[in-house]
Amino acid sequence: MKKTALVVCPGRGTYNKPELGSIYANIASSSPKIKEDLKSTLARIDAERAALGLATVTELDQAKGFKSSLHQKAEHAAALIYAAGYLDFLSIDREQFEVVAITGNSMGWYTAMACAEAWSISTATRLVTSMAQLTAGGAGAQFIYPTVDDQWRPDAQREAAVEGQLAAYPNTLMRSINYGGYAVLAGTEEACSAAVRDLPKVDERFPMVLPGHAAFHTSLMAEAAQAAQETWPIAAFQMPQTPLIDGRGYQWLTPSVDARALQQYTLGHQVTETYDFSKAIQVAVKEFAPDHIILLGPGSGLGGAVAQALIAIGWQGITDKTSFVQGQSEAMPYVLSMGLPEQRALVTAAQT
């Protein structure tokens, strides 16, 4: 009997030096049953990139060394994250898992749209690149700050500190992403610098400014959103084949999706308003009650935020970090990260 799965797509900043070469390596180690399909899909993504006059995903992934100036350039990083995630999605063993819903964090929404077949491979590749270019040119900055304690339980004092900074800089400092146990804040350079200075330091790391990030998911992205809507018409959107949960926790349920509304959300609200990743996860598990949550690559950084979102609602007895880690020690963990070799093997195991 198949197990049901919620699929989660990662956002910006997930393809880094440790991930260099991982796209090629994952294809090379895949079963003969799907290897040619994966190669063909990557070739199609590469062809779209080449037609845009940009480095292909293969060229970037197979570079001799990781260069921040190259690999973290917005239109390259986005393509690597999307391609790695989409190819991981195609690698899930469908004889073992039935994907019942898909969500993502921040730009992971674009990967989710591709996985749900709301865009063709051509459209997804070009749109991901286009949106990276449009938003990277935006103003402002972005930083991250924890709102949980060491056991990943909500910390009222830290949340109050965040609220205090938001109140101190109205309209110039905003919630960008609710990311599990972290508040990602964004706004003008001045407001972000002041908030980073004034927030109590945590673990000698936070608040942490995210290098190269603009004020994503805030009103400072309004021009990018307008340009995106003018560039990508409703005709580019197809009916999703799998339910999607967006950054509001709203469910796009097949086959009743309004293409115009999906276009306006994806290129409007999603770009200029808070992305509530925590709520997306919480709604998804409550509504679809998946047997497992599968986290796509690249990387394995989504696990903590997903766990923290679950802890906040006490899902299935997960009340703190300890209880989550204990559950993950089972032979088939509840949360399966395809960025971890041992868990990837469980997701793709039966493909022989």
TrEMBL record:
Reactions catalysed: holo-[ACP] + malonyl-CoA = malonyl-[ACP] + CoA
Biological process per Gene Ontology, one example term: fatty acid biosynthetic process
InterPro entries recorded: Ac_transferase_dom_sf, Acyl_transferase_dom, Acyl_Trfase/lysoPLipase, Mal-CoA-ACP_Trans/PKS_FabD
SUPFAM superfamilies the record matches: FabD/lysophospholipase-like
Domain Malonyl-CoA:ACP transacylase (MAT): 60-343
Source organism per UniProt: Pseudidiomarina sediminum
SMART domains per the UniProt record, alphabetical: PKS_AT (SM00827)
Coiled coil: none
Protein name as catalogued: [acyl-carrier-protein] S-malonyltransferase
One MF annotation (Gene Ontology) recorded for this entry: [acyl-carrier-protein] S-malonyltransferase activity
Main enzyme class: transferase
Keywords of this entry: Acyltransferase, Transferase
EC number: 2.3.1.39
